[in-house]
Amino acid sequence: MSEKARRANVNDTVKMSLLCEVGGSCPLCRRDLVVKKKKNNVRVFDVAHIYPLNATKHELTILKDEELLSDDIDCEENFIALCKECHKIYDTRKTVEEYRQLVTIKKEIIKIKELSKLWDKQTLHKDISIVANKIGLLDENSTEKTMLSYDALKLSDKLDETFGFINQTKVSQFILTFFVPIRKALNDLEKQEKAKSTFICSQVKSYYVLLLMKDFNQDQIFEKMTDWFMTNTGITDRSKSEVLVSFFIQNCDVYSKC
Ligand SMILES: [Zn+2]
Q1: Distance between Cα 33 and ligand 1 center (Å)
Q2: What residue spans of the chain are helical by DSSP H?
Q3: Model-level pTM?
């Protein structure tokens, strides 16, 4: 069969989805895949087959023991958006290393896509945004009196080497400064019979376990949980969301071994 006949119908929706997957830049050379030409945005990328559609003898040899992303070569799981230059080089002078690089990139993309499908099912109590608003009203004077003692910090025995120093510093400081006020805000919610903190804790914990099963490391988990708090509660300030995640790391066994 000719390449044309076998080529899947890559419509605009698929193209846009592939463009979003790579964040708008070529995953191999970081070049922008959309450029402005005379005030218009023009797409300058190709849809590449990660495993070649019609493999040459040479490609069959070098890729013979390699992992396939899908049994169907001509489907979205095996597609990736590349700039035209990289696509040309990849299609004509492919190496095993480049193939593996693209497989790794695409696997990460698929993992994140699956996760966003699960997001819909994993909810977080909306009233946590009330707590976030309260954090926003705090200042140096009010937090000074409620600082947590350093000895109470449970972070160090929970972390592994995948949690970077910058995140460690940030989360520690957030816990020391905001733990007590957040605990109070959650207790207030409970008194008003809004959200129960044990219930919120169990939601946070179950999302954490989900991320753990998807094999994300601690830095990635921190990022994904921050996103999740924002998506689920309408918190628009990322740092507020990070403060809340830090609270739950201290309070809810997030990062503890299950
Ligand atoms: Zn490129």
Answers
A1: 8
A2: 3-6, 12-21, 57-62, 84-92, 96-119, 128-137, 140-144, 165-191, 197-213, 218-233, 238-251
A3: 0.63
